[in-house]
Amino acid sequence: MPKMLFATVVCILMAATTAAAQMPEIFVGYTNLQGEGLPDRNAADNSIFNTDFFQSRTSLHGVNASVTAYNEVGIGITGDFSFARRERGQDFAGGRDEQNTDIYYFLGGPTVKFNRSHRAQPFARLMAGVAYNRFKASRDLVAPVGTGTVGNSFVIGATDFAASVGGGMDIRVGDRLKLRVFQVDWAPVFLRDRTVDILGSNGIIEPQTLNGQRQDNFRFSFGVAF
After folding, report:
1. How many separate helices (H) and strands (E) can be counted in the chain?
2. Which residue from 39, 78, 81, 109 puts its CA 20 to 30 A from 142's CA?
């Protein structure tokens, strides 16, 4: 958590350093994160998304927000935050199981926007920061009448270096209001080696090392900018 707070402050400061020159641009919208190596992968179907790309990933839904301060020629600094979740629940006789997978991004870096005086305004950006992966599993059991519910949960999370390369297109619909019709970011997370405790076959808690790897995530977003 301290790392996430630090990253948030850095992103805000980076975007604010040039804000005195022009009013910063603020974006708020929906994001669809295609996460690699996560549980509950996308099921095969007959839609246009029935491809190896989507079937090897998990869809998470959430919000994306950013602040960008540009200079006169369209070069700026962006501070970016996003949160996406995959939620799954199942009721059973006497209770309910829930599993939540959350991914937070805290990023910052340079952005270039082209044709700022035109109606269609494409942009490209390169950012770096941290990502926080969190998985929570819980079970709630219905207790005897009058005593409420009894529950237990398991939570594991990690903060790792992340980066982002992408861009999108804004369509101006007012003096300052723009529709961000699409935004695509390749947003890899560089997972470190870590040791976790698991329950072994003999019933004893045993440490197990998870090797670090690159988690190739993709973010698809749209919304409004002003």
Report:
1. 2, 12
2. 39
